Amino acid sequence: MEKKLYKSRDRKVCGVCGGIAEYFDIDPTIVRLLWVAFILSGGCGILAYIIAAIVMDDNPVDIVN
């Protein structure tokens, strides 16, 4: 089965960090801390997060009909 990158239900804001953590099979807290470091080191993390939140799809397994 091919892995795909989706937003996670484990969300604090939009589920981007949780989705990245699920994709790489790591703790979401680590991804969130790295994302904060990117934001504080130059601000490009905010733009990257917004783009990822728009581009990434919700996980189809999590969508309830």
Q: Helix share of residues?
A: 55-70%
Contiguous helical run count: 3
> What is the number of independent domains?
1
Coarse morphology: globular
Radius of gyration (CA) equals: 12 Å
Strand order, main sheet: write it out. 1-2
Protein architecture, described:
Keywords: Cell membrane, Membrane, Transmembrane, Transmembrane helix. By secondary structure, this protein is mainly α. It has one domain (13-58). The chain has helices spanning 16-24, 28-42, 44-55; strands at residues 6-7, 57-58. The longest helix is centred in the middle third of the chain and has 15 residues, at 28-42. It is globular and about 35 Å long.
Key descriptive features of the protein:
transmembrane helix, mainly alpha, 2 strands, cell membrane, 55% helix, two-stranded parallel sheet, 65 residues
Summarize the structure.
The protein has 65 residues and is mainly alpha-helical. The chain is built from 3 helices and 2 strands.
SSE arrangement:
Elements: E1 6-7, H1 16-24, H2 28-42, H3 44-55, E2 57-58
Helix pairs in contact: 1-2, 2-3
